[in-house]
Write a structure and sequence with these properties.
mainly alpha, 0% strand, 143 residues, single chain
Length: 143
């Protein structure tokens, strides 16, 4: 019984965080326009490329791959952030609609919020898969 209540508390906390992020993103987009989101995506893409390069120093990618990574993150990051925000809202609505049954809301949450938010050079080169939709709990324990 304690495990159920801890999952319930974690789900509730995650939904509250997601709602807060969605409100902040909506407010920022309304106040500052799309330029803020694009600048954030470019900065996130550059940071992701740099951290990826530091993490895998034995792999050397061409400058074009790094440039492509940054450019690919400009549309990718905002799209993923919006997808995650909408999925978080859908998860919350589903939680209320199912009267607190957490299986389906957790599946929606995992699929929308988990996954890659930033593309890296190995993803651009095809060495690693891109996970736009996150792995759900059901998929993790299936195999």
């Amino acid at each position: 019984m304690e495990e159920f209540s801890m999952k319930h508390i974690d789900l509730h906390a995650n939904m509250m965080r997601a709602c807060a992020v969605a409100v902040v993103l909506a407010f920022a987009a309304q106040l500052y326009g799309c330029g803020l989101i694009i600048a954030g995506a470019a900065a996130g893409g550059a940071a992701g490329g740099v951290s990826s390069a530091k993490a895998s120093e034995q792999h050397h990618y061409s400058p074009m791959t790094y440039a492509g990574t940054v450019l690919a993150n400009i549309p990718y990051f905002p799209t993923k952030a919006i997808f995650a925000g909408l999925g978080a809202v859908a998860s919350g609505v589903t939680y209320v609609a199912t009267l607190g049954k957490s299986r389906l809301p957790n599946e929606i949450w995992d699929a929308s919020v988990n996954g890659n938010y930033v593309l890296t050079p190995p993803m651009i080169e095809g060495d690693r898969p891109i996970h736009f939709v996150g792995e759900t709990t059901h998929e993790r324990y299936r195999g």
